[in-house]
Design goal:
Helix content: under 10%
Structural class: mainly beta
Order of helices and strands: EEEEEEEEEEE
Radius of gyration: 14 Å
Shape: elongated
Number of strands: 11
Distance between the termini: 41 Å
Largest sheet: 7 strands, mixed
Strand content: over 45%
Length: 120
């Protein structure tokens, strides 16, 4: 079993910054991709940023140049640095981690979500 613990959400004024963290623990053989998604009220969950084990990144157009995804492999932790925040960034943010629990078994795990609210 693998657990993901998210932290770092909160209330911030437009133009401010926040850093989200997501730490994976448990029966981890290896971690491949790590990603952040978000879901605003009344909208579908969308991908915000993805980071592969090879170090490749992919960002939603709406956050390019403002958000940065990174990882600490020693801590099995993924971060999302969010700068120049806008009210449209308000959402519940979820981390997603692709974990191999053995040489042959791979699963996708989701964090519990953390609320980010940006006031105008």
């Amino acid at each position: 079993q693998v657990q993901l613990a998210e932290s770092g959400g909160g209330l911030v004024q437009a133009g401010g910054s926040l850093r989200l963290s997501c730490a994976a623990s448990g029966s981890i053989f290896s971690i491949s991709a790590m990603a952040w998604y978000r879901q605003a009220p009344g909208k579908q969950r969308e991908s915000v940023a993805v980071l592969t084990s090879e170090g490749s990144t992919n960002y939603a157009d709406s956050v390019k140049g403002r958000f940065t995804i990174s990882r600490d492999n020693a801590k099995n932790t993924v971060y999302l640095q969010m700068n120049s925040l806008k009210p449209d960034d308000t959402a519940v943010y979820y981390c997603k981690v692709i974990v191999a629990t053995s040489r042959y078994m791979t699963y996708a795990y989701w964090g519990q979500g953390t609320q980010v609210t940006v006031s105008s």
